[in-house]
Amino acid sequence: MDDATLTTREDITDAWKKLSDYDFIRLLTPDINGIHLGKLIPIRHHQRMLDNRYEMHAGTIAFGPRFEYSEIPEVTKRNHESAHLIPIMDTIFQCPWIVTPHGERVCGIICEQTWKNHEVLQAHPRTVARRMIKVLEDRYKLRIYAGYEPEFRIFRKEGFEESTRHKPGSRAGTTRPPTPWTSGSDMLRYGHLSAYEFFIMDMDQYLQAAGIDVVEYLNENGSGELETPLVPKFGIAAADTYFIFKHAVREIAKKHDMRVSFMTKPLVGELSTGCHFNHSLWDIESGKNVFFDSSAPDNLSTIARNWLGGLFEHMPALTALCSPTVNCYRRLHTGWAPGHMDWELDNRFATVRLKNVGEDGTFLENRISSSASCPYHVMAATLAAGMDGIERRLEPPSRGAYNPAKDVPTMKELPKTLKEAIDALKKDTILVDCLGNQFVDWFIRAKEFGDLKTLEKIDIKEESEEFLAQERYEYLEFI
């Protein structure tokens, strides 16, 4: 599927067989922040959808997390025209968790976007990820096999919305934090996990119906915090799965009087939430994992080492796309989260953790990614950096996790603020060229006109309820 034919006539014919079972369709598309945008359409108007006649303002995907207006030159040049929503027919999924007044059946479809002249909107998050996958497959004859490990927090509904109303720069609203469903940082204690069993079992049934498979459910080391690793998939389907997962979990939780947030650190004195990105590369022709080489040190192939070299070459810029909010940097440089550019064999504290248990079990775990990240950005940035490593045969730094007890003056640190990470992205011309100038420009503008501006007076070195209340206004409900 190329940019000129995002949806073929064969796709439409096959899709209609599925769509005819439903009464309403959710057209969903990610914005630059990874937030779900969309429209609900009655099935009787399906032909309008198939003809790509549903639209939304093109610049909407580059607004800030709280819909802060971003000045996008390309949008201004086109007189703020609308962009077509292009349904990707192989992403149709059921939404059985929705309670409807008359038993209506609802499905969802992920969309990309084109301008009115049918030119693909290259800044769209899914488009850039799909384009990177195509380069990997066409140029290197490789496929990415990837799985995300989402962490999120569950709160009680009472006081949740109120905790987001302390707008920065205003005295209005409360600084009272939301209440986690359970309290205490007792990781893996089943006494805490059992409080979520009814919700988990209900959610698991709905997720399976939507085509999403969760490997396991566990409580993490924070109040109200769960981790739900997703079964890996090849290509863009892995990112689509996480995008749908975030959409579904929030709504399923509401059926249980719960509220879910993927904000990285919403509470004072609590640990933060991440979303590690596990991935490997597989040869299209042979079907072999090209990261694995039984004759090499650590069973790590030359391609894998070059891929690692690319990740570290571009890691400061990668951080902007993998930890894309001001609040994300309350997670990095803490005891459990990455802070340095290091990698190690099966070390859970290293920024990149290598697993090498045979061909099927050899992969890289990138731990920079926050729970607030957009899955398409994480995949696209990882692919762009890794392919540059293969292209230039880059070598990673010496293996070894950062040890604060030892003097490691040569080990580079990750950016400590979103602004530092954005500055690194601006300077990384190779990564910018690979991802596309339009995409990177829109992303940076969404940040600079959005949360960087809204939260410009926040000092993330200070962990206070006053600051976190302002960050909750920006991120708690929608990220």
Automatic annotation (TrEMBL):
<dbReference type="InterPro" id="IPR008146">
    <property type="entry name" value="Gln_synth_cat_dom"/>
</dbReference>
<comment type="function">
    <text>May act as a component of the cytoskeleton or as a chaperone for the reorganization of intermediate filament proteins during terminal differentiation in the lens. Does not seem to have enzymatic activity.</text>
</comment>
<dbReference type="GO" id="GO:0004356">
    <property type="term" value="F:glutamine synthetase activity"/>
</dbReference>
<comment type="similarity">
    <text>Belongs to the glutamine synthetase family.</text>
</comment>
<dbReference type="GO" id="GO:0016020">
    <property type="term" value="C:membrane"/>
</dbReference>
<dbReference type="InterPro" id="IPR014746">
    <property type="entry name" value="Gln_synth/guanido_kin_cat_dom"/>
</dbReference>
<dbReference type="InterPro" id="IPR036651">
    <property type="entry name" value="Gln_synt_N_sf"/>
</dbReference>
<dbReference type="Pfam" id="PF00120">
    <property type="entry name" value="Gln-synt_C"/>
</dbReference>
<comment type="subunit">
    <text>Dodecamer. Interacts with BFSP2 and VIM.</text>
</comment>
<dbReference type="GO" id="GO:0005737">
    <property type="term" value="C:cytoplasm"/>
</dbReference>
<dbReference type="GO" id="GO:0006542">
    <property type="term" value="P:glutamine biosynthetic process"/>
</dbReference>
<protein>
    <recommendedName>
        <fullName>Lengsin</fullName>
    </recommendedName>
</protein>
